[in-house]
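can u do me a favor
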């Protein structure tokens, strides 16, 4: 199960019901909200990450946010680590640390553009890494990428067959 919303199921039965002895249930990037009978009949599911329980119940699970107040995550790398492919991460204005896409097909979008949203490596290596065979499904949009310091790609490093999309970014001072 991925990228689903289970909400307001009031029958008294769990929102997800499966029988032991069947295949293992894997769940990722889904939201479970206000389910009277609980969320699962058995808590032995495989958590693929990105699940939210009784949080963000008015949003679609394909979109998560990063920022200071009211966001799903406070930093971009935590969102990358927690979420599965096919997800959009909307980043509020601010300054964030270096990121590694880790082979995931994520769309990471600065909602207010590069003038107010920064990925800052603080002189400690590459700011943005695409090093695990990312496809064009990996997209970085609208960031200023600054203060990277590395022999090969201080601002952005694309290697190992990666083919990301980098759109509307300002890459400076690396």
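np, heres the sequence
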């Amino acid at each position: 199960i991925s990228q689903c919303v289970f909400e307001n199921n009031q029958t008294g039965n769990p929102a997800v019901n499966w029988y032991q002895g069947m295949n293992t249930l894997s769940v990722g990037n889904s939201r479970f909200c206000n389910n009277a009978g609980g969320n699962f009949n058995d808590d032995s599911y495989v958590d693929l990450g990105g699940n939210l329980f009784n949080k963000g119940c008015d949003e679609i699970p394909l979109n998560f946010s990063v920022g200071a107040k009211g966001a799903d995550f406070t930093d971009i790398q935590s969102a990358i680590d927690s979420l599965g492919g096919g997800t959009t991460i909307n980043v509020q204005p601010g300054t964030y640390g270096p990121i590694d896409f880790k082979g995931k097909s994520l769309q990471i979008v600065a909602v207010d553009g590069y003038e107010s949203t920064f990925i800052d490596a603080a002189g400690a290596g590459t700011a943005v890494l695409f090093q695990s065979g990312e496809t064009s499904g990996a997209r970085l949009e609208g960031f200023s990428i600054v203060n990277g310091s590395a022999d090969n790609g201080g601002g952005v490093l694309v290697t190992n067959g990666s083919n990301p999309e980098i759109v509307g970014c300002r890459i400076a001072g690396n």
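The CA atoms of residues 73 and 79 lie 6 Å apart. hope that helps!!
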